[in-house]
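hey so u asked for the seq, here:
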Amino acid sequence: MTAMTAMVWFDFGGVFSPPLGELFLAYEKKTGIRPDQLQGALADLGAELGESALAPIESGRMPEAEWAALLSRALGRRVPELDQSRADWARFGRQWFDGITVNAEVAAAVRTLRAEGFGVGVLSNNVREWEPYWRRIIEPAGEFDHIVDSCQHGVRKPEPEIYRLAQRTAAAGGEQCVLIDDLAENCRAAEQEGWAAVHFRSTDQALRELSAVTGVRLTQLP
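ran it, structure tokens below
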């Protein structure tokens, strides 16, 4: 363990899961809804709500079913001719995550870090009703010391309070924490709280950078 880093926090989406673009393509295969159509509807919904389209469910302020109904209506307004019959709006998360598997190399890195004495945790913007699905996906990573889920606390990345909450949860100072996240804004917010951060752009790149931060070899590549 390095002198400073003691707690390694992993984002879920785009780190343990495939990249967001791949998730949108997988959803298209299940529903026939193209990524650009769904992304456009999400943008429209965000404009209607006056915040990120995901903020109400990621902060636990809105049930999944209510949110999904709003998204379906936004999609209908944007693409009136679109057949939405294959979309399970009542159980959006279950359909979205169906067939999705963990990034095996990231899961292995978690196990390695824990074996080397690091604390490992999940710090994620997520949805209350989706917990059974993403928990199943990360099972191959083994045990986590802490999980801080935005919907359980009413705050979400990149809001400063969620990083402070994670520190309190782990009883760790900011200088002892590192975040691995696929969104640059979340990494910048972590750094503003004194954390180290690895912006996940590819598995090889992220594990190389995390190896440098922790001093633990996390990739077999030369």
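The first strand starts at residue 7 and ends at 10. Strands lie at 7-10, 119-124, 146-149, 177-181, 196-199.
lmk if thats what u needed
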